[in-house]
Amino acid sequence: MTQYDYDLFIVGAGSGGVRAANMAAAQGVRVAIAEQRYLGGTCVNVGCVPKKLLVYAAQFSGEFESAEGFGWTMGKSTFNWPSLIANKNREIERLQVVYNNRLQKSGVSLITGRAQVLDAHTVAVDGTEYSAERILIATGGWPFVPDIAGKQHIVTSNEMFFLDQLPKRIIIVGAGYIAVEFASILHGLGVKTTICYRGHKLLRGFDEDIRDFLADEMTRKGIDILFNTDIEAIESAGDCLAARLIDGSQVSTDLVMYATGRTPNSTGFGLEKLGIELDSEAAIKVNSDYQTNVPSIYALGDVTNRVNLTPVAIAESMALVNKLYVNQPRPVDYDNIPTAVFCQPTIGTVGLTEAQAREKYPDIDIYKTSFTSMKNSLSGMDGMDEKTLMKMIVVRSTDRVVGMHMVGSDAPEIIQGMAVAMRAGATKAVFDSTIGIHPTAAEEFVTLREPVS
Predict the structure, then answer these.
(1) Residues 6+ apart with CB under 8 A from 386
(2) Which one of 203, 237, 260 terminates a domain?
(3) What's this model's pTM, rounded to 2 decimal places?
(4) Per residue in 234-275, pLDDT tens?
(5) Which CATH number do you get for residue 423?
(6) Considering 240, 260, 280, which residue would you say is the last residue of a domain?
(7) Quick one: 187 and 279 in the same domain?
(8) How would you list the strands of the sheet with 255-258, edge to edge?
(9) Would you call 153 a catalytic residue per the annotation?
(10) How far apart are CA 259 and CA 204, in angstroms?
(11) Which of 258, 437, 221 is nearest to 345 (CA)?
(12) Distances in Å between the alpha carbon of 279 and those of 25, 132, 245?
């Protein structure tokens, strides 16, 4: 009989923690999981899932506008924000029940409350102590807001999903995933939207053509983008807010949202007292097996600040359980991780950017095309039709495809399949010999013939 109450105690019931719990329990491991907020973590409650539902809602306005070109006579449409949020809440509650039922069915002990790690083998939740052979920290991340005058007026993505009413005007500070996604959502729902960013381009780390193309498309749609600036202070101005910029000018708005990154949620769990090593950004340091400097304590997902994506946290949890309890080491391959940005137009990308490829290889060919999709050609929107950009990066000497990028309708759905081909080692010749599905946008990836200069 083991000396511990549990074999594995998990702190945090987000995507990574829940997958680790269910998978380990299926192997006969005695598992407990502690969560103080909500099952499913950020992704299910204030991230990927509700955001995608809001993305769908925002896309209808464009569909209504373009329907006339296809023979539809549209009446006046109205949008009800409280109705959308209520329906969204019901779906999230349903998913929380699903998560709970799966944990219960797996035999996982679900403990509600904030966990404190007391030592290498002990966790306390609301005064009750539990011992465990191993402890896994999977507490995710949290929105970061800088200290500025008027900080109390700021909301983050967490609060955006629960607004009582939709603002008429909004300033979104930041230029990453969350900023451009919410800008597209709110603009699509009729909000006058401004992005304010201290840098000179959107989506740092993405391919330069993608960054430029998206900014042009968002601007054409009517989103104001203020580059090379920042908010110095926010003040209440009667029934609205006044944002004072660093150049001294002011912008009036009804709401200010900060999407200025997320920080690892590593503080307040007792890790510092145990001497668990954190980096300069408070991320938990782990080795290739997700093990901290305290051998019985592990960490994975956003709290380690490696690749902060839900599927990556899930993959890491599966790798950990396979190594610890299945004796089948299957390390996560962090190369060629596909990702999407659900802005309008959407982005799908996998592999190296052009800059990364040129730094790594001496002989790079770039294949690229930009066009108006067939659907948009009949929309009758007087030059405001959404355009598509597709780009392929090839190493000339090996013919290996090392990067694929797309901005346009269904880009994430298309790039997911392309990611499989790239992981399988597909060459440009393989793409060229593949018969396309006509007429689709995806077929462009198998009909790109001449590299651009």
Answers:
(1) 62, 217, 221, 344, 345, 372, 373, 376, 408, 409
(2) 260
(3) 0.95
(4) 999 889 999 999 999 999 999 999 999 999 999 999 999 999
(5) 3.30.390.30
(6) 260
(7) no
(8) 154-155, 255-258, 169-173, 192-196, 224-226
(9) no
(10) 13
(11) 221
(12) 31, 26, 32
Same domain, 164 and 298: no
Establish how many alpha carbons lie within 13 A of residue 2's alpha carbon, considering only the half-sphere containing its beta carbon.
12
Q: Are residues 134 and 271 located together in one domain of the fold?
A: yes
Where does residue 220 fall: left (phi above 0), alpha (psi -120 to 50 degrees), or beta otherwise?
A: alpha
Nearest to 143 by CA among 179, 171, 99, 169: 179
CB atoms within 10 A of CB 382: 6
Distance of CA 95 to CAs 110, 177, 287, 390, 428, Å? 16, 24, 33, 35, 41
How many CA atoms lie within 13 Å of 56's alpha carbon, on the beta-carbon side? 9
pLDDT digits (tens, 9 = 90+) for 147-199: 999 999 999 999 999 999 999 999 999 999 999 999 999 999 999 999 999 99
Overall residue count recorded for the chain in this entry? 453
Backbone angles phi, psi at 261, to 5 degrees: 100, 170
For residue 40, what are the domain limits?
A: 6-142+263-326
138 and 268, same structural domain? yes
Q: Is 336 left (phi over 0), alpha (psi -120 to 50) or beta?
A: left
Domain count, the chain: 3
| Selected catalytic residue, list 121, 187, 405, 438 | 438
Strands (E), 2-52: 6-11, 31-35
**The two structure tokens encoding residue 382:** 């007087």
